[in-house]
Write a structure and sequence with these properties.
This protein has 23 helices and 2 strands. The protein is mainly alpha-helical. It starts with 6 loop residues before the first helix and ends in a 5-residue tail after the last helix.
């Protein structure tokens, strides 16, 4: 077996092996051994993910780097992994964010570091598994696995005594809909005799799933609910602000967005295309409400981590609007925006975390004039803020433009309302920059250094990536467009019309 035939298994399970290695390391006070070993593991992991775009065959049909072997005979469960234009770059993104999370957690207490980083690496296995799994049972195992280390990290390494409450809230919000998801998956297996995504996709495309339309709709809603909570979209966002406020920076980077949005694109639209069309008007309305509601709440915040939490609700509302507009332009923009937003948010939360480490507060009013004391900090923060608001030439602009352009042809009124969120986003982000870094210097702030070399080595490549994604988007769009084009050809004529925006 060559490397292409096993690379996905290596990527998925390498973090789990790394977690076991980290647990075996000695715990020494004031030692950075655990940090260094974990950083080395995540850097190797990132290099492994680069094998995927380096050997991806453009123009190839279906999934690549596939592993598809029987696992359990009854029920029929297969160990089926594979990636395509939708998931390949998400695998690379996860690999990129892993070492950034380690660097953002460099001040994790040495005596507890191995427990923190072992849970963090288990979380990486879960995320990789979600993106690579093509058997519903296998996918569900990774999906549920992602909940446990996340809840433990929020509870055990929270910033205040409210961490347990935030962790329990997150777990309940995510676990209860996931139980409904499992019921829907088992029902689907009972009707089709398969958990395999490719089989289910073909059956759905040919309308060959032998079930009543009402039952199919209920099953699709179970899928959608479980995924929408993880996005999150209004009104399922109640867990997010507390979790973001309490969680360590490394956890926040992977907390929201990617898993839910990917799962909607892969499984909701892939298995329930007609049902997706039925619920689309309602999801579009909720998406626009999320955009405006999240932006207005972000404007009202005095705590910058809670501001960032509500900005997630607003920004990912654009992605939901695009997905359920069913145009190729909007869908390509949605996938690109997931990548772009994840990169920008990683830098944003790392910078906010560094502010808290240096000055001990998340309250915006306590800051002011930091550009005088920390010019490198201010420079990177401004670049990140401009990316966040979608300035042309930076990564945030590409996906946002494609989303609005693609959605407007289907939902002109809703898209026009959503565009107001772009303006509101610029208001609260630029006001945050002004209050923290400009104006009169707050002399009550303790003395603190500018960005350290280690921090700059982590953040400057991300800033360069923001620019590269803004001016060289075809590098990423080539695979994404192949996915969106191929998706249309696998649907029946009525579903192709939906994807093309021809059915209202």
């Amino acid at each position: 077996m060559n490397l292409n035939g096993c690379i996905l298994s290596l990527i998925v399970f390498a973090p789990l092996a790394g977690a076991l290695l980290v647990l075996l390391l000695p715990s020494r006070k004031d030692s950075k051994l655990v940090h260094m070993v974990t950083l080395g593991i995540t850097l190797v992991l990132f290099l492994m993910t680069l094998h995927l775009p380096a050997h991806y065959v453009y123009g190839g049909n279906g999934f690549q780097f596939e592993q598809n072997t029987p696992w359990i005979a009854s029920p029929a469960i297969r160990f089926h992994l594979g990636v395509d234009g939708l998931s390949m770059w998400l695998m690379v993104l996860t690999g990129l964010l892993a070492p950034l999370g380690v660097i953002a957690s460099w001040k994790a207490p040495a005596e507890r570091a191995k427990y923190f980083f072992s849970l963090y690496l288990v979380q990486q296995t879960a995320i990789f598994g979600v993106f690579a799994a093509l058997d519903l049972f296998l996918y569900y195992g990774f999906w549920e696995l992602s909940l446990v280390p996340m809840a433990l990290l929020i509870s055990g390494f929270a910033r205040s005594s409210n961490g347990t409450r935030a962790a329990v809230r997150f777990f309940l919000y995510a676990f209860i809909p996931s139980a409904l998801l499992l019921v829907a998956m088992i029902w689907l297996y009972a009707k089709t005799g398969s958990f395999d995504y490719a089989t289910l996709h073909q059956l759905a495309a040919s309308h060959a799933i032998a079930a009543a339309p009402c039952a199919l709709l209920l099953a699709s809603l179970a899928f959608l609910l479980a995924f929408a909570v993880k996005v999150p979209i209004f009104p399922l966002h109640g867990w997010l602000a507390d979790a973001v406020d309490e969680a360590p920076t490394a956890v926040v980077i992977v907390l929201a967005g990617k898993l839910g949005l990917y799962s909607i694109l892969r499984f909701m639209l892939g298995i329930f295309p007609d049902q997706a069309r039925i619920v689309a008007p309602y999801v579009v309305a909720l998406a626009v409400i999320s955009i405006l509601y999240g932006a207005l709440l972000a404007m009202a915040q005095t705590n910058f981590r809670r501001l960032a939490a509500f900005s997630i609700v607003s920004h990912l509302g654009f992605v939901m609007l695009a997905i359920f507009s069913f145009t190729q332009t909007a869908t390509s923009g949605a996938i690109y925006q997931v990548l772009s937003h994840s990169v920008t948010d990683a830098a944003f939360f790392i910078l906010l975390g560094l502010l808290f480490e240096r000055y001990g507060t998340n309250e915006i009013s306590r800051y002011g004039g930091l550009a005088i004391k920390s010019p490198w900090f201010a420079t990177l923060f401004v670049i990140t803020a401009l990316s966040l608001i979608g300035l042309p030439m930076l990564n945030g602009f590409v996906g946002e433009f494609l989303i609005l352009a693609g959605s407007f042809s289907v939902h002109p009124a809703w898209t026009s309302a959503a565009a107001l969120g772009v303006i509101l986003g610029a208001v609260y982000v630029l006001r945050l920059v002004q209050r923290v870094f400009y104006g009169e210097l707050n002399e009550t702030l303790p003395a603190a250094p500018d960005l350290l070399l280690r921090e700059q080595l982590a953040l400057w490549p991300v800033a360069v990536l923001m620019l590269a994604m803004g001016v060289a988007s075809p590098v990423w769009m080539r695979a994404i467009n192949e996915y969106t084009q191929a998706a249309a050809t696998h649907f029946t004529p009525i579903a192709i019309n939906v994807l093309a925006g021809g059915v209202r």
